[in-house]
Amino acid sequence: MSLTQRIKEKAISLGFDLVGIAPADRAPHAEAYHRWLANGYAAQMSWLARDPERRVTPRLVLSGAQSAVVVGLSYFTHNPPAELWNDPSRGRIARYAWGLDYHEIMLPRLRELGEFINTETRFWQKSEALNWRAYVDTGPILERDLAAQAGLGFIGKNCLLINPRIGAYLFLGEILLDFELEYDEPIHCSCGNCSRCLTICPTQALPTAYLLDSNCCISYLTIEHKESIPLPLRPLMGNWIFGCDACQEICPWVRRYSQVGRQPFLHYDPEWVAPNLLELMALDETAFRSRFKGTPILRSKRRGLLRNVAIALGNWGNPIALPILQQATQDPEPLIREHAQWAIERIKSLKV
Ligand code: SF4
Ligand code: SF4
Questions:
Q1: Which ligand number lies closest to the CA of residue 212?
Q2: Every domain of the chain and the residues it spans
Q3: Would you report the helix, strand and coil content of the chain in percent, each value rounded to 5?
């Protein structure tokens, strides 16, 4: 068995659902990425614009990089009952955040894979110790490009990687290494004439195929955006309070082929999947930290999550939310106060 095959077997034995290997070349979409940044589509994600040439050139990340071992882990879990999804008194959370922080699951496995490759190359190929680095969306790398090059899937019009066998609910990770391996071929699949994700997007954050405008993407707004949510977008956000899966849920590839991973690790619990908005609005800092300890939700901080919850309560439009929102207008955090006030006015206007 070749070294490349042994690496792939090891990756699968570590629980990854997909593994492929690509040459560590400059990203095929490097120029498109530069244009995307220049047009301001990264919004406030300033780290994406920091040294952008490095982000599209793996050899500037790891000197001498020759190969990228790319892995995928499915985070699909079966859909909750429809009444939960459709209950506007509950907030919706993107599927990837229905459990503990995926970095904690992916990174130790990737590092074990890196150590394995290091040992194999030294003992079997009689080479020097490898230079390698592992990332799970933690490094300056265009992950989806690398994954597509490694044959893990194709990039859809919603800008996500789609695997024709297990769908698009995938965590990706990669190991860059300064050693040549046997490379996989990209998959030749496409969206064809479909454009459902472009049509379904509530905020028109996909103005055209293969272009994401983060400025109005609910995923960006609810997680990465740190300030006030622009007024025209608030009513369009519905009850999404952390991330958004609308452009995935509608995708025929996702609907037809999504598979639960071989080692599922996300819970299915109504209070994780669609928590009660009134309860969330009442969380103080201590309760927020305790409830979301170890989960991706911490990224938004309490101020960001309660800002989103206030919008969802405003969109629900039920006067039962008025007392807790009134209380939130006294919150020490100005961001929460402002959005609570907006929600109160929206509920009153919807009632009339
Ligand atoms: S995540 Fe939601 S808001 Fe963002 S592009 Fe997809 S459907 Fe639109
Ligand atoms: S919904 Fe259609 S256009 Fe969008 S990614 Fe899926 S297949 Fe492609």
A1: 1
A2: 3-78+96-177, 196-250+271-351
A3: 45, 10, 40
